Structure formats: C-alpha cells, structure tokens
Amino acid sequence: MTLTPHQRTVLNYIREFQTKRGYSPSLADLALAFGVRSKNAIAKVVNALLREKQLEKDPKGRIKILEMPETFERPQPMVLPLFGPIAAGFATAAEEQAEEQITVEDFLVRDRAKTFLLRVKGDSMINAGIQEGDIVIVERGREPKVNDIVVGILDGEFTLKRLKKNKGKFYLQAENTAYPDMYAVEDLQVAGVVRGVMRKY
Q1: Which of 64, 72, 120, 154 could bridge across to 68 with cysteines, CB 3.0–4.6 Å?
Q2: 161 catalytic, yes or no?
Q3: Which member of 60, 161, 165, 169 is catalytic?
Q4: Which one, of 14, 95, 85, 86, lies nearest residue 48 by Cα?
Q5: Which CATH superfamily is domain 112-198 in?
Q6: What is the pLDDT of residue 72?
Q7: Can 169 be counted among the known catalytic residues?
C-alpha cells in the first residue's frame, strides 16, 4: 500500500467516522471535516483510495463501510516510563523511579483522524527549534490563534510559519531573521496547527 500522508489521514478519518456512526461519510462530510471548499478535491483523494482498494462504493456511488478482517487488531499503543525531571543546567542527583507511564501517541496526538505529519524543508523556523529534516505533528480543524505555528496556505502555496496579526490583518512570520514577513496577495488560509515536533538523532 503506497498512500500519501494526506490519503492516510482521510482514510483514518473515514474509519473513525464509520466506527462512531455506523455509516460512511459523504463527500460533503469530508469536505467540511478537512476545511475544503470544493468536493472535487476530496473526490480525488477518495478515488485514489478506491484505486488502492482501501475503499469501495455501492451502486449508488456511496462509500461502503470498510469490512475489517476478523483478525484485524489495532496496533497496541507504545507505553514508555517517564523519569525525571533531569537538569539541563547544573547536574543533579539522578531520579531512578519512573513517575508515570506515558502513551506516546496520547502525548503527541489529540485526535488521530485530524492529525498528520509533515517533514520540514528549509531553515526558516530554526529560532522556534524546528530544523530541516524534523517532522512536525499537525492538527487539522483546530482554531488557529495568533502566535501559533501553522501550516499556512498563502495564495495557494503551503508554508510552515508563525501566525501573526497587525492592524487587523493576518500574516505569516518566519523564525529566522533572514526571511521576510509574508502577506497574502489574495488569500491566506490555515491548513493546520503544529502541536509538536519530532527529531531523530
């Protein structure tokens, strides 16, 4: 199965929708959930999932409920012990007892159906601790606030920046003084709000 991150996000949303409601979402439901104005954009994703045999349609063109095999089991969440705190300044005595158990997914992801990952390219957000090659965790549908780090759609182009507002007008600001502030010529939208960042050493 070769799905894009966006296709996986849509597929996960459909599965969650079916599990909770007992029927599949319409294209209008999906467009509303993902903040897309045109149903054609969602239809393209659904058609890709059909080609990958992840979805089926009934004779009336409605998405059929996915038949999950009886042997299907949702992967168990990763639970790890949390120690600490550990000093990032002067050294202190080590804490040997784990203070709690943390489910990594629950710590990083609030809503699986609305969450996707993006790999960062470029250095415009380095002063926010986001470097090239990092993976940011993005939540779709969350109401963005001023100073949130967001996936912005500036005149149709996607970019990772901090959301700012000046004299009633929203704009995007880099966390690197080498980059100028970005104002929309026609339209500025927010595709998602960054909730975290992952880096592998």
Answers
A1: 72
A2: yes
A3: 161
A4: 14
A5: Umud Fragment, subunit A (2.10.109.10)
A6: 45
A7: no
